[in-house]
Amino acid sequence: MTEARNRPSPRPLQTPTVTPDEIRELLKTVYDPELGVNIVDLGLVDEIRIDDGRARIRMTLTTPGCPLHNSIAGGVERLLKLQPGIREVTVELVWNPPWSPERMSREARRKLGLS
Length: 115
Known about the structure:
The protein has a single domain, classed as Fe-S cluster assembly (FSCA) (GMP Synthetase, Chain A, domain 3). Helix content is 28%, strand content 20%. The chain has four helices and five strands; from the N terminus they run ααββββαβα. The strands form two sheets. It has a three-stranded mixed sheet, covered by helices on one side. A two-stranded antiparallel sheet has the order 1-2.
């Protein structure tokens, strides 16, 4: 429980034009509730596109049958819709290539005891 309190709070971006790098940083505040690691460090985010206020996020999950897919994808959508300059959000879940632990950051591996 204390870990949730230590997570960074998402802050709205200040610029009306957002970049994929800024979106990637924001997505570090969206956590996989089962693993307690953010979706960027888990290697779940494949692609971020921004075009004329439309954000398109291609991402995967650790397993196709992930019971929390609506929670994670919905968290991404809700967070991005709060950002100035973003008027539409599409979250596309993809399964190819499949997720594997090799996609995780060093920090995520350390946190999960895999390094």
